[in-house]
């Protein structure tokens, strides 16, 4: 067997762990692995090409952030538009990819990506390409899996940032606002806020008012706090229901670029409370750096499961993690279904129990 693998979409800690798992499991079966560079673009005849992957080439990559294959969310292949509106890959592009796959003798393809990339993977399956998917997103918002690798690494970055900001905030009696990624899901903000000792966490799933936020800040200072830490998800809604955007549209992803709500919240908190406030947007820091041990292990397990799916000829499936078990689901059932934070979920209730405010009361 000759297996192809590609990473598509945004980078994520743990991608190299997946490659490590795929190559290791395939090598034990005597299979060959070809890695396509820069996502789906590597499938094109005039694209960035491919490399042969073996255990010698993948030694030591578990600890590396990013991906040795490269990835992209731009180029000739379709991206997800919103949640329900899917752009199809142009037929001529699909035909070129199929020619490359046939020319290289690829028996099956592994696509590691998020919702949009898996939608493209599904289209390849519909075109007769034997393929399986591995879910990848730091946002942890895919409904078909309870956990995605890279999430805890991103949360770790948030926690580290809060740890650092607490000391400077305490020194100057300031309010610190940290804006984190996650788009429409508040998982990174919620977990990062709990783990980093935040006082206020603002997420898309729980509407907040700036009046409530300011009131809680004042209350904390009245009770002797020397600082206040606020975590806000980039997709948290303003009181009028709108979003803070860095641009109206990202042509590569066909979706708006979110960002700026951290600065807005900081400005409003200082204005309403009189307490000096600073803001930090972590941005792509959450995508970089070495993956946590949990993400390395989960990534490797996902890679092994993908090889097992190919061995069993169960194509059109996506690796899934549920109840401590790595299983699989149909890709068709996995895409376009987001897993959002439930306002009354266990994590939110635990956060409220230890005094974290969500700005809703």
Concise account of the structure shown:
This protein has 361 residues and is of the alpha/beta class. It is built from 10 helices and 15 strands.
Molecular structure report:
The chain is an alpha/beta fold. The protein has 2 domains: 2-149 and 291-334, Rossmann fold (3-Layer(aba) Sandwich), CATH 3.40.50; 155-287, 3-Layer(aba) Sandwich (Rossmann fold). The protein is built from 10 helices and 15 strands. It has helices at residues 15-28, 91-103, 115-126, 151-172, 187-195, 210-222, 261-273, 293-311, 331-334, 346-353, and strands at residues 2-7, 32-36, 50-53, 80-81, 85-86, 108-113, 131-135, 175-180, 200-202, 228-233, 245-250, 255-258, 277-281, 317-322, 325-330. The strands form 5 sheets. It has a 5-stranded mixed beta sheet, sandwiched between helices. A 4-stranded parallel beta sheet has the order 9-10-8-13, sandwiched between helices. Strand 9, helix 6 and strand 10 (228-233) form a beta-alpha-beta unit. Helix 1 (15-28) crosses helix 8 and helix 6 packs across helix 7 (261-273). The longest helix is centred in the middle third of the chain and has 22 residues, at 151-172. It is elongated. The termini are far apart. The model has no long low-confidence stretch (mean pLDDT 93).
Mass-distribution shape:
elongated
Look up the CATH topology of the largest domain.
Answer: Rossmann fold
Summed over residues and divided by their number, the pLDDT gives a mean of 93
- Helical proportion? 25-40%
- What structural category characterises the helix and strand content? alpha/beta
Count of distinct strands: 15
Q: Write down the oligomeric state.
A: single chain
Q: Please state roughly what percent of the residues sit in beta strands, choosing from under 5%, 5-15%, 15-25%, 25-35%, 35-45% or over 45%.
A: 15-25%
Largest sheet: 5 strands, mixed
């Amino acid at each position: 067997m000759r297996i192809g693998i590609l990473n598509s979409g945004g980078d994520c800690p743990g991608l190299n762990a997946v490659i490590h798992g795929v190559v290791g499991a395939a090598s034990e079966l005597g299979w060959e692995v070809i890695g396509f560079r820069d996502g789906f673009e590597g499938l094109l005849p005039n694209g960035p090409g491919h490399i042969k992957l073996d255990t010698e080439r993948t030694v030591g990559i578990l600890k590396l952030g990013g991906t040795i294959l490269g990835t992209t969310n731009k180029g000739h292949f379709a991206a997800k538009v919103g949640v329900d509106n899917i752009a199809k890959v142009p037929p001529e592009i699909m035909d070129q990819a199929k020619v490359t796959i046939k020319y290289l003798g690829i028996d099956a393809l592994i696509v590691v990506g998020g919702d949009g990339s898996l939608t493209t993977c599904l289209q390849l399956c519909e075109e007769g390409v034997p393929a399986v998917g591995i879910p990848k997103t730091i946002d942890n918002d895919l409904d078909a899996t309870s956990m995605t690798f890279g999430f805890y690494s991103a949360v770790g970055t948030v926690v580290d940032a809060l740890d650092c900001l607490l000391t400077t905030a305490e020194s100057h009696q300031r309010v610190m606002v940290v804006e984190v990624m996650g788009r429409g899901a508040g998982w990174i903000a919620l977990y990062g806020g709990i783990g980093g000792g935040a006082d206020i966490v603002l997420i898309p799933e729980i509407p907040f008012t700036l009046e409530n936020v300011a009131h809680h800040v004042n209350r904390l200072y009245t009770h002797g706090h020397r600082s206040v830490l606020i975590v806000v998800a980039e997709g948290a809604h303003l009181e009028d229901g709108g979003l803070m955007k860095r641009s109206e549209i990202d042509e590569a992803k066909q979706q708006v670029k979110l960002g700026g709500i951290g600065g807005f919240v900081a400005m409003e908190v200082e204005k309403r409370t009189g307490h000096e406030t600073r803001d930090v947007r972590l941005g792509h820091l959450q995508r970089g750096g070495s993956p946590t041990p949990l993400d390395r292990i989960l990534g490797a397990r996902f890679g092994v499961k993908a090889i097992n799916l190919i061995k069993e000829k169960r194509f059109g499936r996506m690796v899934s993690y549920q109840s401590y078990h790595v299983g699989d689901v149909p890709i068709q059932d996995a895409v376009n279904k987001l897993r959002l934070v439930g306002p009354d979920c266990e994590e939110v209730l635990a956060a409220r129990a230890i005094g974290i405010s969500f700005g809703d009361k």
